Amino acid sequence: MKKKHLLLIIAIVCGNVFYTIACTGIALTSKDGSYIQSRTIEWSESALLSEYVIIPRGQSLRSFTPTGANGLSFSSKYGVVGLSVVQKEFVAEGINSAGLSAGLFFFPGYGSYLPYDSLQNNRTVVDLQLVMWMLSQFSTIDEVKAAISSIRVVGLEKSSVVHWRIGEPSGRQVVLEIVNGEPHFYENKVGVLTNAPGFEWQLTNLNNYVNLHPGGVSAQKMSEIMLNPFGANSGFLGMPGDATPPSRFVRAAFYRASAPQQATAFETIQQCFHLLNNFDIPIGIEHSMGESPNIPSATQWTSAIDLTHRIVYYKTAYNNTIRCIDLSEIDFDKVAYQSHPLDAKREQPVEKITVN
To answer: Cα separation of 236 and 303, whole Å?
Structure first.
């Protein structure tokens, strides 16, 4: 791929207008111990080219750098199923055959990588391919932490910065943020992630909402009148409702914490999709009046990954039917390296009911 063409693609996906990019992630564990990581991915400028990607064991892979396809070369130790954006190498969310899962979330204005050094191309991995590198090489979070210093993570486009969510079937999840070239791992006990500011700030900001609680509030007398709640869920009155990352983080944290635990993995998968419906970003709210593109939603796709049973579920803005890929049904020693559009046809199927 020619450098100019590559940089044009990156400019399109990054757009230098990060307010149009958003992601919300929620993780849940079912009563039977199954662990699920789910997320949305948003892009409100146009239809985002997205594919599912199958990477076999033993596949030769290579990272891009800002000057071309000349970064770190590596061979996949594990089979991988991923959901990519723009092109198949840019896996935004995925899982490997060992059950390790990882995803990238845009992180503008707060993360910063090492400067690109062409003399170190042989250990350079671009941020949009770090998920592919992690999932193809490692089976645990600790392995990722031990190996991250062996590579140099750089951006393909200077203003393009992301942070990462990494989980394993045990239910452990960490957030990786690179600031001033230094990787920082945070244990994620709250089970949610959005975008900027940094993860530690987002946790601190939750203290601003210490008054929120599920359920309702009691009527109370003020002077000579009675004050009564207008309806259910008055305990969440004051919850931020806008689409900015801090507000989405707060909502996701409280929705996750108040969600009743489901019995099985599949019931939890369904619950994740229902929870994340609350984070669909409508076309129109991120643009000035009359300037919105003609796409059905800024939320381009939503995924839920069962790390315990190694199954990837997803739906898209064009087709809300949930589809799945079961890693146990793939022979990663024989399958070809391949990618396919998330939607074979960008059209919502409708089940017609016949009344006799």
So the answer is: 27
In a domain, 226, yes or no: no
Contacts of 37 (CB under 8 A, 6+ apart): 25, 27, 101, 103, 165, 167, 173, 304, 305, 307
How many domains does the chain divide into? 1
Domain-located, residue 157: yes
> Quick check: is 125 in a domain?
yes
CA dihedral 41→146→125→74, nearest 10 degrees, is -110
Q: What is the CATH number of the domain that holds 119?
A: 3.60.60.10
Give the Cα-Cα-Cα angle 172, 102, 94 (nearest 5 degrees).
125
For range 187-213, the mean pLDDT: 97
pLDDT in tens, 242-256: 999 999 999 999 999
Q: Can you give the residue range of the structural domain that contains 181?
A: 3-196+260-341
Distance CA 317, CA 346 (A): 9
| Residue 27 to residue 104: CA distance in whole angstroms | 15
In a domain, 160, yes or no: yes
What is the spatial distance between Cα 141 and Cα 98, in angstroms, rounded to a whole number? 12
Q: How many CA atoms lie within 13 A of 349 on its CB side?
A: 8
Q: Which element (helix H / strand E) includes 38?
A: strand 35-43
